[in-house]
Amino acid sequence: MGNPHILVLATGGTIAGKAGSATRHDYRPGQIGIDELLAHVAELDLSAELSGRQVANIGSEDITPAIWSALHEGIVEAMSAPDIAGVIVTHGTDTAEETAFLLDLTLPTTKPVVLVGAMRPADAVGSDGLRNFANAVRVASDPDAAGRGVLVVMGDRVFAARDVRKVNTRGTDAFRGYPRESIGLVTPSALDWFGAPWRVGEAARFAYSPDLPEVPILPIWAGIEPDYVARLTSPQTRGVVVAGVGEGNMPDPVRQALKQLAAEGVAVVRASRIDQGLVDREPEDEANGFVAARALNPPKARILLQLLLAAGASDPAAMQAEFDRR
Ligand code: SIN
To answer: What distance in angstroms lies between residue 61's CA and the mean position of ligand 1's atoms?
Structure first.
């Protein structure tokens, strides 16, 4: 059997970034095109045949629904191409968790799909880009990777999209998983999974929607004025994710304003501004018409809520079941 064919969809980020000097702190993401990246990778002599497509070349703070649509379309095509074994998406680390989770919820689990980035630009001393990429090739080449949903490979670890989060602004070990830590360890020469795949042969959980409904995130802070709910929402708002304090808490006047919105048909999800910890459903959520985000952080809770709303969901109990799902 020949080497597996892996399609690389490039979107930019620090893995494609350059500083122009090994000692500069600042740099520009999205400077290296896919052909140049693959030329560097060819020198590594990996056991895979790689082909690439430039979908975007941006810092991931500039990711847009249009780029998500292009990625989704490209991966769906690759899933039905008999010669392609898996897909790698190169991506900035800042919003990789959101892109990964959106794709995780809207793709079948028939072939490995792996997001990879870097914390240091390509020309920095100790750049992690090529190592992370070589690790991603190893994961995307393993058919056993498919039944775990979309994966993120960073810092010699493999994370499931639902768990992964960026927890540090610097350093090459900037990603963690919650509530599960990494689900595998990877180096360019070895891949070890912690446990069996749990989503083998699963269809896409949600239809992909290029028009995601308006769902702002409301951060709670000490002394927040209750009229922030009104300031943040518009007549187009279909849902609100609260990045609450502690276990998704908020001052009572804010809760009352959100309860009123929920009564008017706007979906309200309680998440937490704390990085680790569950926000569980409480008895008063039932009375308020709220949903608890469980282990999802606010940006990921927002994506799940948008897909639920796009699919026509409106019952908080049915929505809660999706937030509870692994
Ligand atoms: C970005 O997210 O595009 C910039 C930061 C990074 O890739 O690490």
So the answer is: 8
